[in-house]
Amino acid sequence: MTTALLSDVGAAAVSVRDVCQAAGVTAPTLYHHFGDKQGLLEAVAEQGFKRYLATKQGNGPSADPLDDLRAGWDRHVEFGLTHPAFYRLMYGPTGSRTHAAEQQGLQILHAMLVRLAKQGRLSMTPDEAVPVIHAACVGTTLMMLANPDSPAHRGLPDRVREAIFAAIITHQHSDDDPATTLSTQAGTLLATLAGQHDLDLSPGERLLLTELLSRWIR
């Protein structure tokens, strides 16, 4: 019910009265379950994130993490264009809290980037790359939703995807510049270090090593 109203009038224009009438409940009932209108919208956004997460969890890793990264980007854009009411609520200005399903989705993205880093194919740390990719993908999808019929938007998701990937993905060879090779090797070691918890390092030593490797990546 709420999703249909969101599609018709948008989150800002949806009223508690409209929702109650559509659902056949009283306002006190709605307030009892959700607290207020914002609580209701957050609950709908949570359902959106869960639906989106289901599209990601159904796809296991392939042999090439870069292929997985491309497929993940495409699934994100497709979900937004297919479920515009959910997507605007999930990533629009009305959201005020972080959702567990959203964080799980970002963890899946992080795991793909760790695989790339271990192969020496990432020009920054996975922690740095996650918000870069996420911001670009969300921004592109929201732009597509804002003006879906614009000729300038034809093929836009693919163009932005490849531009972002070109900025963060490296293709190293043995005769590459030594400084670039060092950066790649540092990224590989840093990604490997993040998954090793039984090394004989104190917290301070681990922090120092992480800081040094991060500097070399840059």
From TrEMBL:
Domain HTH tetR-type residue range list: 1-52
N-terminal signal peptide: none
DNA-binding interval(s): 15-34
Molecular functions per Gene Ontology: DNA-binding transcription factor activity; transcription cis-regulatory region binding
InterPro entries reported in the protein's UniProt record: Homeodomain-like_sf (IPR009057), HTH-type_TetR-like_transc_reg (IPR050109), HTH_TetR (IPR001647), Tet_transcr_reg_TetR-rel_C_sf (IPR036271)
Keywords (A to Z) from UniProt: DNA-binding, Transcription, Transcription regulation
Domain of life: Bacteria
A matching Pfam family: TetR_N
Name listed for the protein in its UniProt record: Transcriptional regulator, TetR family
Organism expressing this protein natively: Lentzea albidocapillata
